[in-house]
Each structure stands twice: as structure tokens, then as C-alpha cells.
Amino acid sequence: MGTRWVNASATDILGLASDLRVREAVASTYKRLGASPSEPTLDALLALFSSSKRSVTWVAELPTYLMGEGRLIVEADPGCRIAGAVPVDSPEAVPRSLRGISGIFLEGVHPLRGSLPPIPRYVEVAERLKIPLFVCDNLGVGVLGRNGLGVCDHFGVNLLPGIGTLALGHAIPGSGWIVFGPGEMVKALRSLEPAPPGFQAVAAVRSLEILDAEPQRRTRVFDLAERLLHLLSELDLDTGPCVTPWIPVWLGAEEHCETWLRALAENAIAATALLAPGSSRLLLRLPATLSDEAWELFERAFRKVARRAPIPTKENAFRKVELARPGTFLASASEFDARWATGDARSQAHSDSEEASARERVLTALETWTWRGANASSRTIRRATEALRNTSLFTNRKKD
User: Residue 147: which residues within 8 A CB-CB, separation 6 or more?
Assistant: First the structure.
């Protein structure tokens, strides 16, 4: 018999990609259609996200051209790197008077902090400045919100006349993005994108149907996340502002993180991590399919590792465990160490006590745009930019 491993950094957090019913539906559709698109299946998929107040479409990739040529997007979360973005750390930091601004960009679940942006406050700012709000929810769909429709659903925000995007392929199997927003923009995008392969669309449709019939999957994810946060708090490990099932464990030094990864692997726990100078952290996500027996194995192994692996000093001795469960409006933990707010380790090579200057951030944004531009086809950028330029979405509207 081989060693039984526990996956502590699952990507299939709801266990839907491995569900036999989803796999059978995908296999059946692929046998019938191959990689051909299926308009009826796409219509069925979009119907699950549509409402009388918003138009919905599907796109294969989320392009960088959503800002439009020569436009400026204010980056509302320092964790995002969007071309031409000027980072701001809170709604209050958005200037009242801006020239050439396209809108405010928000990331949904922060994958390295497990926190959420306070979307309702940004909605107020966007309405005051008469600019659209763009929310990119790359993880939350299926997990967050009363109806499992992501971070906007969690806060009860409609995002009119803004844009919302929900990523498939994480908690909900499939590919591409569901995009909802003003009808004019959605119509323009729809004219550019073919329908997704039928088997990809049916994977998402079948998964959402199962999730609707089995809400206990979401409950289980949050229950396991709560157990894990209690365990980490007991072990005096720092999880910062995390309030979602995407749980980071701040370890600081890269060598500390590598020691933890090795020790966990030696104890049959598979985990991933971010390695960055001064900001290294474990990235833990327990799947809904984890049994109580597997949890006990995980807990025993984790406690064993914690007894000999390095644990950085934690300034906040007490952390109230709270989660952004359906029906709540929680965005982040009320108290956490300042090191979590000094920039994002994904793109900076500074120690956790240093803050990147405005000039460095702008250069980083420009470098990102150059890289993305070099890796995107000119035809794609040109077609999409023209389509969105012809809409009124990114024009400042006068007050009626």
C-alpha cells in the first residue's frame, strides 16, 4: 500500500472537477461533438448567470485591452498588476478629480491574502466620479455569495453600469470567463468570441447544477477553512487579513518556507507556497471532499511539523477567526500585522518593511503591459480595442 497523501492546496476546491457526474457529462459531450462549440449549451450556461438587469456573455480569455487604447485604469488592489494602472490602497485614496480615467479595477479574492476588496465602498466612489467599476473574480464563483456567484454576490452588488467577470476552471470546471455588464459592451464582446467547446461548457453547466442541489459542498469548504484557521491561530501562525478558504500562512524568509514545504511533504501533505524575499508564505486550500479522517491525518501531521519547523514571531497574539460565509459582508480580518499591507510579494523584490515608490510601481505596470503586449496577437488587441472603443462604457457620463 502506498502512502496516503492529503492535498492541502487543492485547485478543485469544491470537488466538482473530479465528480463522476461531471466527468460523464463531459465524456458524453466530447464523444458527440468533439471539440466543436455548442450554442445551446452556451445558452444554458449563460442563463445560469443572466438576469433582467444585466447582459452576459462568455470569452475565452480576459484581455488586457479592457482599458481601451491610451486609457488609464486605477488599480484598486495592490495585488493586481494591470497595464497603465495607478495603484490605490483604499476607496478614500481614489482622487476626486482625474483626467482620462477609464474606471476602477478590483480583484475579487486576493489569492495571496485570502481577503476581499470592500466592493460597496468602491461602488460609491465610482458613482461619485461617474466612472465604471471593473471586478475580476478569478476564484470566488461557486464558493462566495448567497447564490455562489462570487464576490459581487457576496456583497449583494449588481455592478451596473460596471463590468463583472467570473473565471471558470477553478471551483467551477470549464474554461474562459463569464462577463456581465452593459448590453452594448457585452454585444461587442459576443460578436468577437466563438462559443466555447461543448464539453467545456457542459462541465460548467453540470457543475453548477450539482452545486445548486448540494449546497453542503460550500458549507464544507468553509467549515474546513474555519478548522484550519483555528489550528493555525493555536500554533501562533500568521494568516493576516484572510477571511476566505484561500488561506496564506506568512513565514517571511524563503528558507523558512522551503523548510516547511519539505517537512510537510515528508509527512504526506502536499502544499504550495509563494517564495519571495521577506514575504514567503504557504498557500493552503482544503477541498470540500476532504473527509474527517483525512482532516485528522492532516492536523496530526501539521502539528508535528510545527514543533520543529521555524515559526516567525507574530505581533498580534490574538486573531478572531471570522470567515466571509454566505449572508455575511465581511471583507478582511479586523486586525493583522502591518507587513501584510506593505505591497504584494507577487511583483516586488523588496523586504516586507519596504514600500515600492510610485515611480517603481508605474514602471512595473508599464513593464507588465510590454510583456502582455508581446504575448498577445496584434489582431486580437486591435479587434477588441476597436469594439470597446465604439461603446460608451469608458466615456464619462454627464449627470442626468
Answer: 153
The secondary structure of residue 236, as a DSSP letter, is T
Query: What gap in Å lies between CA 321 and CA 318, rounded to an integer?
Result: 9
**Cα 41 from Cα 174, distance rounded (Å):** 12
Find out whether 137 and 165 touch, Cβ atoms under 8 Å: yes
Written as one letter, the residue type at 103 is G
Instruction: For 108-153, write each residue's pLDDT tens digit.
Output: 898 889 999 888 888 887 887 777 788 889 899 999 999 898 999 9
Question: Per-residue pLDDT averaged across 359-376, rounded?
Answer: 41
Residue 154: C-alpha distances to residues 61, 64, 168, 244 (Å)? 24, 26, 18, 11
Burial letters for 143-161: b for 16+ Cβ neighbours within 10 Å, e otherwise? Answer: bbbeebbbbbbbbebebeb
Report the Cα 207 to chain-centroid distance in Å.
19
- Dist CA 391 CA 382 (whole Å): 15
| 266-288 pLDDT tens trace | 999 999 999 988 889 999 999 99
Q: Name the pTM for this structure.
A: 0.78
Task: Please say whether the beta carbons of 85 and 74 come within 8 A.
Answer: yes
Amino acid at 184: E
User: 26-30, 43-47, 181-185, 304-308 — which is least confidently predicted?
Assistant: 181-185
Residue whose entry in the numeric block shows the C-alpha cell 476546491: 13
Quick one: CA dihedral 264, 298, 284, 331, positive or negative?
Answer: negative
For residue 91, whether the previous peptide bond is cis, meaning omega lies within 30 degrees of 0, is no
204-219 pLDDT, tens digit per residue, is 999 999 999 999 999 9
| CA–CA separation, 323 and 242 (whole Å) | 8
Partners of residue 281 on adjacent β-strands: 250, 274
Q: Which of 24-38, 73-87, 313-327 has the lowest mean pLDDT?
A: 73-87
CA distances from 295 to 8, 12, 98, 198, 305 (A): 10, 17, 51, 36, 15
Distances (CA, A) of 179 to 51, 159, 316: 13, 12, 40
Alpha-carbon gap, residue 224 to 241, rounded angstroms: 18
